[in-house]
Specification:
This protein is α+β, with helices and mostly antiparallel strands. The protein has 2 helices and 3 strands, in the order βαβαβ.
């Protein structure tokens, strides 16, 4: 079985005062607090969620 591709996302802006759909995307990515990093599977659906809230999250590059 092939190894699943993963990516790390970090919440860099507050969810306070944002649209309901944007808050739901951030929660769906597993992010609850500022500066929290979550590792999610790299699929088209998660990429779409990241693109929707690109002004609030940051994809963390692997070193």
């Amino acid at each position: 079985m092939a190894d699943k591709k993963m990516m790390k996302v970090k919440l860099v802006r507050s969810m306070h005062g944002k649209r309901k759909g944007h808050k739901e995307c951030v929660l769906g990515l597993g992010l609850r607090r500022m500066h929290q990093i979550a590792e999610v599977e790299d699929t088209p659906s998660t990429r779409g969620m990241v693109n929707k809230v690109c002004y609030m999250v940051q994809v963390v590059e692997e070193a």
